[in-house]
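Dissemination and training. As part of the outreach component of the grant, students in the summer workshop were shown how a complex can be specified as a set of sequence lines and then modelled as a single object. The example used during the hands-on session is reproduced here so that future cohorts can follow it. Participants entered these lines:
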Amino acid sequence: MASHAEEPNRRDFLVIAGNAFAAVGAAVTMWPFIHQMNPDKSAQALASTEVDLAPVKQGQAITVMWRGKPVFIRNRTADEVKAANATPVDKLPDHVARNANLAANAEATDANRTIKGKENWLVAVGICTHLGCIPKGQALGDEKGEFGGWFCPCHGSHYDTAGRIRKGPAPRNLDIPPYAFISDTKIKIG
Amino acid sequence: MSNHDSSYQPTTRIGKWFDERLPIMRLMHGQFVDFPTPRNLNYMWTFGGILMFCLVAQLVTGIVLAMHYQASADDAFNAIDQIRRNVNYGWMIQAMHAVGASMFFVAVYAHIFRGLYYGSYKAPREILWILGVFIFLAMMATAFMGYALPWGQMSFWGVTVITNLFSSLDQIIPGVGTAIVQWLWGGYSVSGTTLNRFFSLHYLLPFVIVGLVVLHVWALHVTGQNNPAGLDIKTKSDSVPMYPYAVAKDAVGMFAFLLLFAWFVFYLPDYLGHSDNFNPANPLVTPPHIVPEWYFLPFYAMLRAIPDKLGGVIVMFASIAILAFAPWLDTARVRSAKYRPIFKWFFWLFVIACCALGYLGAMPAEEPYVTWARIFTAYYFAFFLVIMPVVGIIETPKPLPRSIAEDVLGAGAHGGGKGAGAAAAASPEKR
Ligand code: HEM
Ligand code: FES
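and obtained this result:
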């Protein structure tokens, strides 16, 4: 029958249309089985955390949990801020601020990593952007790496006092989470 | 050997009745009793059977453990303790499963290196070999997810580091890597949700492996076994029936292997693990030195040898994928390295490189280890991409025996298997 019909004929159309419907149907059926693995509603609920910074003295650091992730909060000394400011952006492996409170293309200056008027406070997600270890540098005796910020022992990534990657395999600066000061000594993350 | 007929003869009436309806006994008899095996096989050929044993042992011990295990972030760590201390014989069965995973990899590495040395991947066994590569991948995935289940510090951080490998895809299409990682985790970090799905998959994958093994053995029984001489079975005198010859030899190899297995289970059950995994998972503290289980160390060394995140991930996966291409990268006309005077040396250097990478993978990511890891990684790839194609062309193979029988019995015996040594080989023609 197909041999004397013109190409492409009605049968070809039916075959293609039938297969296309089957493929779309299969994909639609698959989606719930794939999507079920994505973060569920309880994980998504954007929990926010309030943190009182008053007890954190200059040179000290604390770690709080936000969305199941550790967040580093460091009250930086004047020297540490100065060191961060003295580093030109074009010397950084990652030029972007990675600050959820700013535009995605903001430059990785120290000012763009902090909040104006509160430059001594650095708030960053404490997860190495390489493969997710928690860098050292929060506790007093910790090794802080070659740039005085944090050091990730897993594969040797060095972060500076602004949480910017300086050396090692990590591709990005530590993420700055969305946060704001709700009073002079209190922040709300998320 | 596909045309080999089963000599199965049902002896009872019910056997005959059954055979006419479902000839499974006929099939099994033909494939596993009088299946012709080359008469020159050495002990490296016993690892296939050993691997079968390992798979069944993991299934049996695993199903038992699953009866007592709790896949939740709060309970998993204690559940293992409970199994080891309180469940009747739990201490033994848990050790069998944990040690069994290591022994499984000991056997699979022996099996793979055997294939590389004797050219078992070469035509006509390409599909057989590639199925093996898939089995290896499935084993790695299974073991990785199994290692997560005790929910100790190494479990947690191993999962974190390895799942994060996928975030390197952000370097190609921003956002895609992160989306995949969060999909794997079921959250924004590794959590009990992740543990739960890993348990589900850890239960599933071994059965996928069973399916792959069936295909692997099927492909093997189509082409027949390779052998130390790398020759095909041409006449009846080249082969012996699988039972009792190969089966008996397999049993000897298996018992030697079981001695080693039992020694670890009963005397050093935790030797192959990591002491950090006796600390419960803590998402706030990374152990100072994250190392995977020993069988992943060479790949971990390659990952860390590359200074770029995405590059490291690509190299690590490529190191396994490249195995699948070996049949076409190797240009040699003879199979067995026994007759390949140049390739032989490069092969042993390859074994050394793999061991060295294993050592380097356990060392911190510092100099001089990183440089050495780069050198051995380069050699690992050069072995496949340069040595296999080039040496195959420039090398003159040593003269091959004319047949498998001649390989075993010496030149005089060619053509009949009735030479001086034939009596010792217990008249293989007897069927
Ligand atoms: C391909 C075969 C398998 C491999 C390579 C494998 C590997 C592993 C490994 C490495 C561990 C961690 C052991 C430890 O450090 O304590 C583990 C744990 C576990 N596996 Fe398997 N496994 C396999 C098959 C199975 C099967 C079929 C089951 C049953 C459903 C199973 C159930 C479990 C359970 C419940 C645990 C947690 C208990 C424990 O840690 O000892 N496994 N597996
Ligand atoms: S995870 Fe931090 S350097 Fe790899």
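Residues 414-431 of chain B have pLDDT under 50 and may be disordered. Students were then asked to discuss how this feature might be tested experimentally.
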